[in-house]
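Hey team,

Filing this mostly as a record. A colleague (T.K.) asked me to run one chain through the structure pipeline before their review meeting, and I want the input and output archived in the tracker in case anyone asks later how it was produced. No errors, nothing strange. Just documentation.

Input sequence:
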Amino acid sequence: MAAQRNQGLCDLTWFEKPHFESVTDVVPAETIRQVFRRSFTAPLADIAARARTDRNPDPELRVHDFNPLIATPYIGLSADLHIAPLPRLVADKTSIASLYHQGLTRWGVPFTRDLGRLVEMYAGEQLALIPEAALSGEREYKPGALSVDWIVVLPSVVVLAEVKSARVAQPSRLTLTAFVEDVAADVGKSFLHRDGVRDQQRRRGDDAGVDRRVDGGGGRGGGTPGGGLPAGPVVAAAADVPR
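Output structure:
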């Protein structure tokens, strides 16, 4: 909002003004400036150099190259004055997608693994708000094989929900083959988990009430005979998956 109202400009001396006291009383102005300089801005020469790095050899595909303004949406004009050529990228910088990449760069895979657990827990909290829903968490349906993250039993349907926080890698966005391979390697596991749950429920019905109501005995995907409910998969992602 501030970037749009000020033609993309940000002056770090603003945080010393009285109308920012409601913010700086909670987060000190110096802390805000440190975070801004570390994560939101870079000199023009640095941004230009990153734009020239790893360019696609095919000119027609360079439109898909990484935009360095996504990583640092502001360009430093001086020590305190900075400008955002695309103000909308400032808000994107605070999104969960941006936090994913910042954390991966700084802490590696342990960060993304922990983030995945938090996203999974959040999805479960939201699913628990559905009226008349009976919620069951991830379970081992055979040695070494886990079910989907959440099984939601509703009066007329069972929803098998798998939660993912991973992102499609930049190279995989350039060709359909690479995209399918990337998605299959991660999100595709969701469907293996789903099928595993369904196969297990067809073989046994002696577990919790949730189990007895999942795919009571027919084919994959539709309504099932024998009192079972139709079951459908849902993959919940922390960010949009390019199509």
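Quick notes for T.K.: Residues 2-94 form one domain. The radius of gyration is 24 Å.
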